[in-house]
Amino acid sequence: xxxxxxxxxxxxxxxxxxxxxxxxxxxxxxxxxxxxxxxxxxxxxxxxxxxxxxxxxxxxxxxxxxxxxxxxxxxxxxxxxxxxxxxxxxxxxxxxxxxxxxxxxxxxxxxxxxxxxxxxxxxxxxxxxxxxxxxxxxxxxxxxxxxxxxxxxxxxxxxxxxxxxxxxxxxxxxxxxxxxxxxxxxxxxxxxxxxxxxxxxxxxxxxxxxxxxxxxxxxxxxxxxxxxxxxxxxxxxxxxxxxxxxxxxxxxxxxxxxxxxxxxxxxxxxxxxxxxxxxxxxxxxxxxxxxxxxxxxxxxxxxxxxxxxxxxxxxxxxxxxxxxxxxxxxxxxxxxxxxxxxxxxxxxxxxxxxxxxxxxxxxxxxxxxxxxxxxxxxxxxxxxxxxxxxxxxxxxxxxxxxxxxxxxxxxxxxxxxxxxxxxxxxxxxxxxxxxxxxxxxxxxxxxxxxxxxxxxxxxxxxxxxxxxxxxxxxxxxxxxxxxxxxxxxxxxxxxxxxxxxxxxxxxxxxxxxxxxxxxxxxxxxxxxxxxxxxxxxxxxxxxxxxxxxxxxxxxxxxxxxxxxxxxxxxxxxxxxxxxxxxxxxxxxxxxxxxxxxxxxxxxxxxxxxxxxxxxxxxxxxxxxxxxxxxxxxxxxxxxxxxxxx
Amino acid sequence: xxxxxxxxxxxxxxxxxxxxxxxxxxxxxxxxxxxxxxxxxxxxxxxxxxxxxxxxxxxxxxxxxxxxxxxxxxxxxxxxxxxxxxxxxxxxxxxxxxxxxxxxxxxxxxxxxxxxxxxxxxxxxxxxxxxxxxxxxxxxxxxxxxxxxxxxxxxxxxxxxxxxxxxxxxxxxxxxxxxxxxxxxxxxxxxxxxxxxxxxxxxxxxxxxxxxxxxxxxxxxxxxxxxxxxxxxxxxxxxxxxxxxxxxxxxxxxxxxxxxxxxxxxxxxxxxxxxxxxxxxxxxxxxxxxxxxxxxxxxxxxxxxxxxxxxxxxxxxxxxxxxxxxxxxxxxxxxxxxxxxxxxxxxxxxxxxxxxxxxxxxxxxxxxxxxxxxxxxxxxxxxxxxxxxxxxxxxxxxxxxxxxxxxxxxxxxxxxxxxxxxxxxxxxxxxxxxxxxxxxxxxxxxxxxxxxxxxxxxxxxxxxxxxxxxxxxxxxxxxxxxxxxx
Amino acid sequence: xxxxxxxxxxxxxxxxxxxxxxxxxxxxxxxxxxxxxxxxxxxxxxxxxxxxxxxxxxxxxxxxxxxxxxxxxxxxxxxxxxxxxxxxxxxxxxxxxxxxxxxxxxxxxxxxxxxxxxxxxxxxxxxxxxxxxxxxxxxxxxxxxxxxxxxxxxxxxxxxxxxx
Amino acid sequence: xxxxxxxxxxxxxxxxxxxxxxxxxxxxxxxxxxxxxxxxxxxxxxxxxxxxxxxxxxxxxxxxxxxxxxxxxxxxxxxxxxxxxxxxxxxxxxxxxxxxxxxxxxxxxxxxxxxxxxxxxxxxxxxxxxxxxxxxxxxxxxxxxxxxxxxxxxxxxxxxxxxxxxxxxxxxxxxxxxxxxxxxxxxxxxxxxxxxxxxxxxxxxxxxxxxxxxxxxxxxxxxxxxxxxxxxxxxxxxxxxxxxxxxxxxxxxxxxxxxxxxxxxxxxxxxxxxxxxxxxxxxxxxxxxxxxxxxxxxxxxxxxxxxxxxxxxxxxxxxxxxxxxxxxxxxxxxxxxxxxxxxxxxxxxxxxxxxxxxxxxxxxxxxxxxxxxxxxxxxxxxxxxxxxxxxxxxxxxxxxxxxxxxxxxxxxxxxxxxxxxxxxxxxxxxxxxxxxxxxxxxxxxxxxxxxxxxxxxxxxxxxxxxxxxxxxxxx
Amino acid sequence: xxxxxxxxxxxxxxxxxxxxxxxxxxxxxxxxxxxxxxxxxxxxxxxxxxxxxxxxxxxxxxxxxxxxxxxxxxxxxxxxxxxxxxxxxxxxxxxxxxxxx
Lengths: 645, 486, 164, 475, 101
Hints:
The complex is a heteropentamer of chains A (645), B (486), C (164), D (475) and E (101). Chain A is mostly helical and 645 residues long. Chain A contains 30 helices and two strands. Chain A has a two-stranded antiparallel sheet. The termini of chain A are far apart. Chain C has six helices and no strands. Chain C has helices spanning 2-23, 27-47, 51-75, 91-109, 126-134, 138-159. Chain C folds into two domains: 1-86, Four Helix Bundle (Hemerythrin (Met), subunit A) (Up-down Bundle), CATH 1.20.120.1200; 123-164. With 475 residues, chain D is mainly α. Chain D has two domains: 1-166 and 219-256; 266-475, no CATH class. Chain D has 21 helices and two strands. Chain D has helices spanning 8-26, 33-54, 69-89, 100-119, 123-141, 148-179, 184-189, 191-194, 198-214, 223-230, 233-258, 261-264, 267-285, 291-312, 315-346, 357-360, 362-376, 382-397, 401-427, 440-458, 461-473; strands at 60-61, 66-67. In chain D, helix 3 runs antiparallel to helix 11. The mean pLDDT of chain D is 89. At the C-E interface, helix 1, helix 2, helix 3, helix 4 and helix 5 of C face helix 1, helix 2 and helix 3 of E.
């Protein structure tokens, strides 16, 4: 069972290759291969999960083979499986499977259908690699590969300039974070002498890593998590990433890849735990992100972007939880969020598939046309907003409780974000599915999606509804995913019942207000927009973060232009081709310069040499007595030397 | 005749044979060039097979007295440092020759010079006698001069002479350094192995001067800032096959020389120079990347990216540890593969569109999927994507250098980011976005081009996934090398 | 005393004639001055007791070379001599250089003690010279003949009228 | 008067010259080329004598001359150059058939003078040898009477020569005054006595002027470009190789071994002149558009490199000069031979004549590139080994490292103009694309020199051994 | 009279000759100036021989050789002058100026 877990990513890799090479001849143009592999993976993950809960396997499990050695150190390829891994594995395989099924409908008829599935399989493989690997080096590799897949999939419809741009933006922004990863990893290597996760954790647990080093490494590593998991200030790429097909958004930019940052922090939690400073950075960045992203979602009219901001906000929650010390809560939120956010994205995809627009202002009243989509979207919304007894309620309140335990301000920020979440989700729901159709043509054209698309929606909806409750039965999740020394997972403690009640009421209230405002009195939001136009502008400009990063890029460009002009105009022309300018001046001064010299002057170090040569050549006047004079000079000097010597 | 001599002499025979064929028999000339370069590749494959990866000693040594008056030997051999470079040279030459079948101008001369160039390059990597090394080193110059000057772009003549003078200046200084080493050994010898043992005992000042003389020669080849200005020009003007060799092999001669001789023979000076070298390495990385970003010309961009990548190599070398050295050598090899194929790919598009202006294209991925795929793979490899060849070397360079120079490494990472930025921007502009209908008539890659490029792409992936192919060759020697430097 | 008078007389003749060679505008006059100068040098030789050289100087130099030069001067037109400057523009640096040389040389001459006088009276040299010429110096002596032959060949080659 | 037998080769050569001169007066014009062959054969015969007789190891001395391996080596070089020159002359159109006898005779006499020079141990003897060379060469330079360039080159050569001869003779007179003899043996033994004698030093310095003129050392080089350009091309080749190397050989004997310049304390002066010579030669060569002029400046620069070895003057330095002389002989001769062929086909010595030569005659172009690269000092050609040798001596001496560095910089500069010719041949196109034919005699020269250029570069050991022997027996 | 007198005379003669070589425009004038310089050397030889090395005759002999060489040189020189006069119709050296640079 466990011994064969390493096959999972390899199989996905193989599937990717298979689809790319032979997809044409496979059923469903190759989608079948991807789906089959994903299904198998899911079954394995589920089996593992069950066994792990029942205690049928001993964790953690580790196996590795040598990969290559460098200067006395060894890099390995291997798997490291503990509860955390299994939880993540379940998320990845499940969402991947459902998204792939869904995509057969969504991507139907796309000219690059085959390639899409290849990318999806490649992504799944890399993501499984991130999840399973035993070595931070391989982790980094798969991490980057995930990024590339994201790049390829965001820019899947690359004929759209915006899609191409978004892909690049996503890649470079996350790459910025990756620099932190690289340096952090180097720090970690020199602190521990190894890339093996198990050894690093062991050393960290033993406290063998100095806190300062651990803190530095942890913060640097957090930079990369911030990039991939779209934390402040690097979250700017995620809204733009919605240029990709909706299933991609569901899989990569909602459920799995963006959660990888959280997963990484959780993976190296022992290192983070060594440094309170690092923990604080994580917590506060998470809180800030949760708040900012939620506020950004308030004014957004693009359905997918609303969901994207929502994702960012929820990721902020997870980080906040981890930073606050609530290890299990963070991971629990990751798990539930993966399902309902994937659901929301897929439902949104279904809507977009029907009306061919992302803009909520052109939708409305779609609940009649697309009942299944509507119901599932509604369930997802409820789960997200944290209305009991849906999944989000269990996880989010856990996070808020942890925040409260840690720091009341953290809790306040989190609660505000929760309120906003409820509000904007209500807004989105109402604008999309309720009210009158705003674009009649699009409305008429709309229709319910086919079964391959609604099927996964229903499944996910079911999971979203029950997962929170199920996973907390018998401390199931807590047993699986825990960290010694972290805050306990304590929903059932009465003291935190208050938090649960409070947050549920806030969410419900906020949601009701939102729904009422947008359904019954749509003029009020419009009025508010006008009244608070500076705030709205700030939100629409995304707190000017985009502008800030564009400025950075601009500075980079200027810098590069300057460096190149230095290289070309100064270093090459002036210093090396040296004196060319001087020579030219000199040549103008001296009328006797021949034409061919100018031809020759286009030359190396030599321009200076040439001018020296020209001077030397002056001596060769052709007048014999000038020559003789030189001889005479030499003779006289010789005579003088003889006398002097 | 030993295997190494056979490897070196095979292309020479080919070159002479070509000289004997009338210039009108183009197919025959191409055939001969291909056969002899392929034979050379096969022999180097044999070299890979017989090479013993467990020892750091020189292998397949052949030593024949050549000029006893100066105690000069024809002395060849390989160790982990050079064996992979020999194979790389043989491989890239074959591919470049295949690619160059599209050359129609003065075919005979082209392949003559090309094979002669191969002799020089192989010779540099197998020589263990410093004099012999120098002879081969210079031997690469002349063919290169003609290859750039006759078959190059619009400013070919300028580029050719600039390349020639620049490199010659460096190598002549190197010659003085070599002579200084020679006269400071007892008995006077050019034997590198012996020199390494003897020169390390020289006083610091002497070592510094010799190091400097050698360094200038090597640095120009690498090219290390500020001696790099010949490179963009030469690359841009050179024909595709030659650019490939230039980037893939010739640049490596510089770093190879430093690691082969300068470091082990002059350890005191090496340590003395380290603070400068790390600064140069960082400048190369950051500055090269930024310069590349400013380029509108695809080829120039790749050329400057070479400056950046050789900076990684230097970075690894400044680590003075086995990790860094491993990284540096691996980086040499992978850079050869990656940048070589990037130059091929640039050549492919230039052959079709007759422009390399990045802004002139757009959306090519839709119509040229194979081309776009290969280009994206190599670009990703070049910007250090894990799983592809570029990553491991680069990572090891950083890893090695981090221990000694954490802050410099921190600065150097900017280079990674900028590299990613300019490469992705290039991909966006050239391959993505709406298709530029101006290029509707162009065809995707043909068989000749695929044969030249696909092996490199395959190797890029294979080495990326399983770097032991290279590292196992390198590691023992590097461990030994670090041992004698420290 | 007589000796001194003769020397200074000869020195004056030589110097003035030499200056004439160098400075006189008409080439014809210069050539005549050259003859005079060479004759003066011959006088110096005589005063130093070198009988054979005196004869050779008169015969070869004055009789041969100077006359030859005169011939050429006549052939190659002295026409413009009076009209154009005969001294070129670099006379000043030349003068300075000659001054420098002269100064340095005179300093060197000063090394040879001024008091030195010949230890013995001059003897006839012809016999001794003949001995040397047919003895140790036979080879240079023969070589000179080839040199002369070569120069003669050249003269014949260049001196030919435009026959071809 | 003893050991006259040692001069047999020179005597034979002079006699052959005389015979050819006479024969030239009687032979029909149509068959006059026979005289070239006669000259070649006699030079070859003497060359054979040199090789067979001495094998570069026998030595002996007469009253004024000496026979040692060094002298033999230079005789070998001179005779080889003579043979090459005669071969090049056969098809040189500007020599009228009726003057072939004169031409050949003068050439042989000049060579005879050079051979004498290389063994001279007495200043009178040396002076006469120098004059024999000078006078023959003056005439040979002006041999194309109809060509004003030839005449002008000759007269400039002559006037420079005249002045330096006068200075040299004056120097000899001072030497005589200081030592009482013109013999270098006695002069050498008297070095210690005269070190503080300014007359002695001045004499030696003035002697240096004479040699400087012959090897075209700056600032006595001015005649060289003009004379080289004006002279018939074979004569140019001859002047640049034989005349220069013969004088260099004698200079080596006098200033590097008999009366070493270190003893005279003028090392720095010679070093400075060497530096000037190579630098000025190279810098000026950059601007030349005429191949003969370019090669003239190049040969000035080459003399500068050779002088490095003379400056160092230790065994390695002297060996390096000897080796360099050998290298220079084959390389420069070859280059001139190609230049002659090209000029013969295109009628021009301008560099434009080389445009697109590779398309017209690839073999010739490659060979020319080889010569040029050898001159520039690129391995594996003999020029490289020679430069390597010279630089090695400078590096070894420590004291003259700066000369080596300067030499390096100069080499780089020189490559620019050498490769400029290569550029023209390979990169440019010419309007005339007809192949350039080579006549058999010139082909012979080119073949031998190019083979030697390559062979001596690849396997220099034999020749290194040779020069080592020469130096170890050199007086 | 002493040796120094003769040497001084020779030095003056040499300097005058040198000056002539450098300044005479007429090529024949230069030739004549060179002859003056040679004569200066001759005076040296004879004077040295007479004062320092009496009883030996190498100096005298050398003078004879020099006179002969001078004659040979003048012959060739004048022949060359004739040759160039035929070509350029000038005896002024600054007109011999085709070759330069």
